[in-house]
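The authors assume throughout that readers already know how a fold can be written as discrete tokens. What matters is that the chain and its backbone geometry are given together, residue for residue. A single example would do more here than another paragraph of explanation. For illustration, here is how one protein appears when written out as sequence plus structure tokens.
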Amino acid sequence: ALGGLLAQQAQMTRLFGVGVDILNASRALDAVSFELQLLARNGIVQAAQLNHATAPAQHGAGRSLLALAEILADCPRQLAPVLAIVTAQCRAIATHTAHCMGLARRHAQHLKALLLVVDREAPGERHALSRRLTGRPSRRAQVGDIALTTAPTSAPLVRANLALLVERCTASARELAANLDAAAQCLRATDQALHALDQIVGTVNYLGLNVAIEAAHCAALGARFGQLALEVDAAVHSLEQKIGTIRDRADHGRRLIEALGA
């Protein structure tokens, strides 16, 4: 029984690591979004200068770049609320997984003490009790019927201690199941937010490609926009990497939660 709980504790430790990894990656997304915002603003300034400088001679060759830069500048504003959702969910995942670790340790300690008393007072009950208390988190909570009938011939104080221990085991099991369920819900919400991020990042990537194309046809200051396009491409690549990291770790977290029976 205790061996099974130790294995579950190891899984919860891994789940906590997943929560921390997701949280770190979500924080890095904010930095990349801010970098993209600076690039877009710089692009607007450069495009406005180019449009002013070339308007008389080239009929406003910088207008297309200015329009693209303005659309690009709106993307970080679209990213902000989605990133806020991702960050909030990632914080919640880390919090729930941290609680799971503490609850798993507490449950194991209470269970160990309970089984020691049961071994002494009512050894015939040990197998059924340990099976009920070490099963899947969603099933561990229903142990009150055993608690009330265990060791009926024992002294009142022993029966009271047994009842208290089972009550503690039951409470920690319920909290554990609730936190695992909450973490699973956060992972689902994170996945939905990541899909929204994918769409915005796709738009940014498309705009960056168009900036590069327009810059290639613009002799004046075209090199600057070529560099802007490269920097936007690098920011998009960084965003995609971090989104991929969150998605991969979230998938791993879901598999761990399923293995834990939530």
